[in-house]
Amino acid sequence: MDSKYCHKAWSSGFAGIKFPLLADFHPKGAVCKAYGLWLDGPGIGDRATVLVGKDGKVLWAESVTPGGVRNPSVLLAKAQELGQ
Question: Which of 2, 8, 43, 79 has an alpha carbon within 20 to 30 A of 26's alpha carbon?
Fold first, then answer.
């Protein structure tokens, strides 16, 4: 649910990122809800990564829960592995 500005700052540290990042900032949570990642109780999106192929189909998804930590190197390797 980060903004496009947040995504730009995050991805600038990874020279290997050559794919777009989806910002779900407004309307708040619309994409999270579509992927079943919206948490009604706290009113936030789950901390998750969803890799979507060029055809629009989900190739891989991982949730680390709202308090979890993602490893950017693992995410980049997964994207490269999937060849998207």
Answer: 79
